[in-house]
């Protein structure tokens, strides 16, 4: 049996209430502003309801059947003042409440942003950047809508309906109140039913919109790859495929909205017609004046507008909740890597590093490391070499605590890194990664990222140490030159030098070089290698390398194969063993000699 597409489940309703409750602390932060705004709201609605009552008195006072015809100046002035107050109080209310709304948007956006940065590398490897950014954009927009329209449209509309119903019940035939009540009940019931049904369409639209946006951003980020393979039309087709499904959902959404509005108008029209027929009959019978007829008509028009708006607001609030649903779900993403309750600040001290019987798997069926044990004494350099996929880069990810080990432990200066704060751990480690990705900002900003509070002189000194200062100075904008999206305006070698300068500026106790010179030519590599050796002096250094020529001076070299350390020793000792390392060394030497000279 096919399940119904409408799923107003208890869990969904609980989630909606949970979302609404999560906004309460932001209201309490400005409780006096909220109280003043709500007071202005009540005054505005009282003035609005009083307008038809004064209008009735003006019309009755102008009745020609009366012996003396006098312009009721006081009533006319009062009518104008009430009209003014009904609008003025509303504008003042919006001005008073503006700070509450914008602060809530800012706080929630910041909370989501901070939480995303606190999530594990596993989440960020799986995420779709375009979809996540669109979810946050829609969610923050929904907060402003939810706060404003829930407090300033739903509540005042219900208040106005209640006041009008009470006046009709007290002043006129009970049937006026009965017809009004029945009309409202039918209108609200129909609106709620259709809106719940339309929420399925809205959620579908959101999902398809996020997928299309993800496709577009992913394609633009990989612009060069698209061009390399001439796949512009292929990318356009994939994007249009998502947009085609979105178009279908959007059309369905719009047609269902037209149906809803049409039936709402029919319900209101029938209700107003019935009331006017009843009022006209009462006037003919002399039980009501012409002013009473006008009063009932104006009341109905006044009710019709907010009531029609109530349907719109409820729909939009439900849409806002759907938009916020995904954003708030990001806040419930498990951090996976979190500071322990009693986490202490890392005491770097001599910065000796120990891997003790470490085993690790990215997934249950994908074991990467098997019982890995080694030590990097303080101030020493240990290099790790091996074929691709041997688990070399995983060591640096574990040391940074992007993941936690499943077995064994990693110690820095005798402290288990799971028992210290992540911020203090990462502050003690600097890295020059193989794939350097830069921010779409200036070269100065990207180098300064290693230590944002550094002075300009320190940043220039770091650039000089990384042998990139002269290149930067040769650019028209110098250090203010923009590097482009992901640093694409720079060559691979230039990006890597910026990464080296950034690591030098950070001045960490522990250094990691993950294929740090892989993008450099031989001449630049030799110059940088000398500089890397200089900055590694007196620092605990882990070098992950493919080119064995870059690690010959390491205090110890570890050879990894299929997640295990199969050899260890100095360069000379490993060559003397004539095993895997010696084979790799000989093979690389043959490749170097075989390369043609240009």
The CATH class label of the largest domain is Mainly Alpha
Distance between the termini: 71 Å
Fraction of residues in β-strands: 5-15%
- Radius of gyration over C-alpha positions, nearest whole angstrom: 35 Å
- Percent helix, as a range, is 55-70%
Main sheet: strands, sense, barrel: 6 strands, mixed
Structure description:
The chain is an alpha/beta fold and 598 residues long. It folds into two domains: 15-331, ABC transporter transmembrane region fold (Up-down Bundle), CATH 1.20.1560.10; 348-428 and 512-524 and 541-598, P-loop containing nucleotide triphosphate hydrolases (Rossmann fold). Helices cover 64% and strands 11% of the residues. It contains 19 helices and ten strands. It has helices at 10-22, 24-28, 31-61, 73-118, 121-126, 129-171, 174-221, 223-228, 232-284, 290-331, 392-399, 422-427, 443-448, 456-465, 469-474, 492-506, 522-536, 571-577, 580-594; strands at 353-363, 366-376, 381-386, 407-412, 415-416, 429-432, 510-514, 540-545, 556-561, 564-569. α14 (456-465) crosses α16 (492-506). Residues 1-9 have low confidence and may be disordered.
